Amino acid sequence: MEEVAGKKVVVGGINLIGEDTLEEILSRLPASSFASATCVNRSWSHLCNRILTKPKLVSALSLNPNLNVAVSEVVEKVLAQPIRPHFAIASIGSKFSLPATRKLIASRLGTGIPIIVSEAYGIIGKDVLTGHHKEVNWLETDVDETGKNCAGIVLTVGFLPGLKVCSIPLMKTVEGPSQQSTIDKFVTDIKDYTASVSDCNSPVGIILFADRNADMGAVLEKMDCAMSKETIIIGDESNCFLWNDGEGFKEDAIALVFATDRDKPGGIGEVHFSLALSTGVSPVGPVYKAASVRVVKDEEGICYTWLTARRKGSLEKLDGQVILEEIDDMYLRLIELVKGLTVTRNMESFSHHLQNF
């Protein structure tokens, strides 16, 4: 303690450790302590902002059969490091309640960010207890009618500096004229929100969560035409979901919209979304070897490619239509295991090539 201007003041303490050391300490704090440190003074706030300048996704998996314990485990894990949640996505087994799960997560992360909870047929992630990656496929697990073995949750929390994140609903409608107007409003809401926070009306990315009974074909076609080619659109249309605390499920889909923030702080770079096929994906199903390929004409003079092939280990020749039907049957069996769809641009061209095949 020293005397300065006639007053005794404390000199030293935390200020003596140096800015680099202080930044290292702050970078190791859990999220709640990190948030408190940000409010200490302007210098600490500057250091905390410098730590969080890059996009960050953190996830955790728990297979604890008790919902309260499972949610507590994954939340504690994702908040064990500095992060300012911009959104949260949770996938759960059928044993857990969607409303109860979302309420528990919101009580820890707050209600000011989009929180979407969906029911899954399987989950994959890093187990909170072992630290090892684990995959659970409930379609291949023996369960009773109560689904007692379908207990588990994987929680992903994202921080994307320079982006604004918002959830926008597509309300349920019956097939008819009102359906198209609802789809138009859904797409308009996405573009209007983007324009309100960004310098353009097309977001950089959209994650769609759709009801398993919803027909998303018309929605995807509309979005494909209305959005920029640079907008990445992915999603899940096989499970039920919950995005707010309202009662009942009145939405066909929810769009988690990521738009560039025109008011982002200086020093924050651009966030770009991209799609890639994982090198870990392995071929599924039988192997076919071409037996013959020839060109045929129909009555209108249109040319088609006529393909026959043999399945590996078989001498039987199969034409292209039979092969496509086998692939389609296999696809229907596998689709419940694969979470996610990609909106393919130039769908008319894709359909044309498929017909010619």
Automatic annotation (TrEMBL):
InterPro entries: F-box-like_dom_sf, F-box_dom. Residues 19-50 form the F-box domain. One of its GO terms (biological process) is positive regulation of proteasomal ubiquitin-dependent protein catabolic process. Transmembrane segments: none annotated. This is F-box domain-containing protein. It comes from Coptis chinensis.
